[in-house]
Amino acid sequence: MKLTTQTDYALRTLMFLATRSSRSNVADVASLFSISVNHIAKVVNQLARLGYIRSIRGVGGGIELAQPPEEIILGEVIEQIEGDLHLLDCIDTEDACVIQSFCKLKKVLAKAEEVQKAYLDSVTLADVVPTRRQLDKVR
What we know:
InterPro entries: TR_Rrf2-type_CS (IPR030489), Tscrpt_reg_Rrf2 (IPR000944), WH-like_DNA-bd_sf (IPR036388), WH_DNA-bd_sf (IPR036390). By secondary structure, the chain is mainly alpha-helical. It has a domain at about 5-85 and about 125-139: Orthogonal Bundle (Arc Repressor Mutant, subunit A).
């Protein structure tokens, strides 16, 4: 599996926000990771729609996690942003290949997906968050 840039930026944004005790903003995230503000703004909108962050407008506004990091499961975030995570189309589509009905490769790859998903579903945002001190040294 290779994640899209969108998912990469979403995970980085969540990690950044998990190190903050107060609201932050899109420009801070973009600056730290040297990513365009427009890209992060799109990611923030998607994460807000999915319920992972809150985006507050106006004076005193900004962005913050909508859930504790311990409750944000990486596998779920990845699946919601990526959509289809299948290694091959035949894993969830009938008649994708002429040998599909007896293909052993399909079974192997389906098992690999199952193991990967189970592992990612066992990891929370809290498990991968750097310390604020580590992030601040990057600047």
